[in-house]
Amino acid sequence: MTISDDQRKFLITHRLESAREAIEDAKVLRDRQSLRGAANRIYYAMFHAVSALALERQYLSKTHSGLIAFFQRDFVKAGMFDRAHGRALQKAFEDRSDADYDDLLTLSFEQVDTRIDEATRFVEEVSSFLDKSTAL
């Protein structure tokens, strides 16, 4: 699928807005003591941010793990993002998977608060990077 530069910029902006909205959703869920739901929204905040990066680079992945590998390879290993962001993305993915599929998983408020902070920084960094590279 080919899209114009204007369409690409629009979709990148939309994905970043979706990322910010997911963080706000995570905060609401955390406050309602729905920690498993918060874990889901935390991961998807980061997922939407990485998918904006992928769109900017015209990279297509059919899997979540492929998108995470893209971020690790093209941004973390290349030195554009700190390794802490790579670890935070991987941990958010694992937390979301565990929250969705592990019936006995127990998350703490501290864990969720830490992940919300990491996701917030992650989305801010990705947004700043894209602002510079795409002139959004």
List descriptors.
single chain; Four Helix Bundle (Hemerythrin (Met), subunit A)
Could you outline the blueprint of secondary structure elements for this entry?
Layout: H1 5-31, H2 35-56, H3 64-76, H4 83-101, H5 109-134
Helix pairs in contact: 1-2, 1-5, 2-3, 2-4, 2-5, 3-4, 4-5
Can you give a write-up of this model?
The chain is mainly α and 136 residues long. It has a single domain (5-134), classed as Four Helix Bundle (Hemerythrin (Met), subunit A) (Up-down Bundle). It has helices at residues 5-31, 35-56, 64-76, 83-101, 109-134. α1 packs antiparallel against α5. The longest helix is centred in the N-terminal third of the chain and has 27 residues, at 5-31. The protein starts with a helix and ends with a helix.
Helix content: over 70%
Number of helices: 5
Average pLDDT reading:
95
Instruction: Name the CATH homologous superfamily.
Output: Nucleotidyltransferases  domain 2
What profile does the largest beta sheet have? none
Reading the helices and strands in chain order gives HHHHH
CATH class term = Mainly Alpha
Low-confidence stretches: none
Oligomer: single chain
Distance between the termini: 22 Å
CATH topology: Four Helix Bundle (Hemerythrin (Met), subunit A)
Query: What is the alpha-carbon Rg in Å?
Result: 15 Å
Q: What is the count of β-strands?
A: 0
Structure classification: mainly alpha
Shape: globular
The CATH architecture can be named as Up-down Bundle
% residues in beta strands = under 5%
Summarize it.
This protein is mainly alpha-helical and 136 residues long.
